[in-house]
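User: Round two. Same drill as before: sequence, then structure, for each protein.

Assistant: Same drill it is. First protein:
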Amino acid sequence: MGRKWNNIKEKKASKDANTSRVYAKFGVEIYVTAKKGEPDPEANRALKVVLERAKTYNVPKAIIDRALEKAKGNGEESYEELRYEGFGPSGSMIIVDALTNNVNRTASAVRSAFSKNGGNMGVSGSVAYMFEPTAVFGVEGKTADEVMELLIEADVDVRDVLEEEEAVIVYAEPDQFHAVQEAFKGAGVTEFTVAELTMLAQNYVTLPEDAQVQFEKLIDALEDLEDVQQVYHNLDSEE
């Protein structure tokens, strides 16, 4: 599928290694998700997904507990979920998901990041139709055949199972996230290199070197924004 998820995770981890930015964003996401349902992950599947993702990013337990306690205490902060769509250099496509308590601030910041880095905003629906919501899991220490066998035994349907670098990556429908997770746990696998609900492009593009440098600056600028939770794109990540 051209994504090489372990490489992507390593790049993000390196980028965030010396900052608390990723932890702060997870704190907001956990709080919002817990407030929308129950602050108990066993009763709130969406929260369980977020906590599994947080685990793969090594978010400290103190950050998680603080967000959950805030939700249990009926914190009064209100956040809106927003999605922006746009284009990078050479027609590359980008989706930006945000959680914000100030819509005008976030819209202005996202628009500025696009315009200052060779991109431009699109209207709602101009990009998203080219992406598919997807559950992605990565595990180490097993072969693709072993993973496929355990998923078949658990009667779990997936789109694909591929060996990428040193891990096996499973691609599935979003509503199969918990089924895949439980299948792994039933086989004794509790640690994941990747556990994401993401948006995968139907087609990926390669860019000339100068355009790729500009594109990466744009992605960095978007990911640096306080209110931005996720950035999805269709740049081929084989390299």
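Second protein:
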Amino acid sequence: MGGHGRGRAAYIVLEGIDGAGTTTHSKLLAEKLEKLGYCTCLFEEPSRGDVGIVIRKILSQGPFDQRLLSLLFAADRLMLRSSIEGCLDRGCLAISDRSWISSLAYQSYDDFPDPAPIEWIYVVNRYAMRPDILVFLDVEPAIAYRRLGRRKGSRELPERLQALRGLARRYEHVLKLIEGIIPLVVRVKGSINGCERPVEAVSRDILTVVLAALRYWEHSKA
């Protein structure tokens, strides 16, 4: 995306279970920051590159070996790294729909085929970019399930909902593990007490915390 760099370059990642809204809100965040004068670059995982295409094909077929996926995702991130660094070098904000943190949650989840040890996943992703800001979209699994049903058609409720609940618990474990590794981790509620929050309200909350972090860093270096 266009525009001139403004202030501190930063790598911003949005994470959450399937149906949390990471794709929607990464795009909205980039659009809103552009309107405020920031230069942004938008990334997604898996990427649209050669390795990302292979990952997408495997994911569409399933079931799949999580150890294999861990390695493929790590390779995809390594290929993305130069693009992210190039964005940051231009003084822009790199905004990503998911990161290696997704692998820590998904590829280690015990109910998926051949899960990988979380320590091993961390090691194979040692060269992946570390976010400056991690935004975790906290959406209740039942809400996420309903969203996925609207988007991709109906699924077997007990199986799919059980997986989403398990992944939500896995993310809680992962978020504790990465404390101190990432400068800023913020949780934004996408639903409350079984009710979806409006997209615009969630988007506004994300923008608020990101701007607060950016302005703090800008002023601290002034």
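The helical segments are 22-35, 50-61, 66-89, 100-106, 118-124, 141-152, 157-177, 199-220.

User: Perfect.
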